[in-house]
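Students often ask why inverse folding is considered easier than folding. One informal answer: many sequences map to the same fold, so there is more than one right answer. In these notes we will look at a single instance of the problem. The structure comes first.
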């Protein structure tokens, strides 16, 4: 059995690479520093979204107890609906939904 003695000879017997060297995924990103600019700000924004989601879920359960439904709309606005009565009310944010829940006799 022959063993290659130089790198040049070893490269000849290696299988050819099917991918071209100029493909974007083979070359890798041009800028190796792809970290977030301000990770604290991003973490704070994600935490705010998580808080809004849990607040929405809690309020939706409280509206459900009194026969109403809470739906998210675009942005921070929400829709409170009474499907059996065919009425609904759009509110600007979850804070307004909490106030409205307290006004109509739900547990806020």
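Output (designed amino acids):
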């Amino acid at each position: 059995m022959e063993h290659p003695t130089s790198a040049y000879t070893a490269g000849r017997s290696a299988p050819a690479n099917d991918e071209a060297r100029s493909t974007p995924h083979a070359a890798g990103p041009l800028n190796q520093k792809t970290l977030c600019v301000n990770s604290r700000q991003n973490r704070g924004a994600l935490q705010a979204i998580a808080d809004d989601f849990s607040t929405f879920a809690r309020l939706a359960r409280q509206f459900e107890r009194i026969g109403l439904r809470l739906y998210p709309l675009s942005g921070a606005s929400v829709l409170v609906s009474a499907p059996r009565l065919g009425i609904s009310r759009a509110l600007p944010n979850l804070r307004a939904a909490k106030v409205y829940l307290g006004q109509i006799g739900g547990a806020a």
